[in-house]
Structure prediction request, 127 residues.
Amino acid sequence: MFFPEGQLRVYLYGQPADMRRSYDGLYALTRNAMGHDPMSGHLYAFVNRRGTQIKVLYFDRSGFCVWGKRLEAGQFISKWEGLATRELDYTGLKLLLEGVQVSGYRKRYGGADRTTRASVSRGAISV
Prediction:
């Protein structure tokens, strides 16, 4: 996957998804449940109930692509309570795919100096 990171939007579906779904099923979830246009070029991430599998749907100007990952140990998401459909940045997606838990993440911008502070640990993402 080669994407311009600054322009990319990633949406995480806030409920468990059936991993038997493929292109058409994920398209329908994106269109109907999330209310987004799947052909917009954004990435749409779906995680199963156990939090061990993730699928990402995107449109690349010539057709739909589905990228998937299954963890042998650990979870992408540990708690579904309080998780809502939300937008992530590309860095958030990369951390999610690596199973890195982010807590206390905040960006501070000031003049030309840009700093980001985050506390991370390996394991499941808790939201």
Summary: Residues 10-99 form one domain. The chain has two helices and seven strands. The chain has one domain: 10-99.
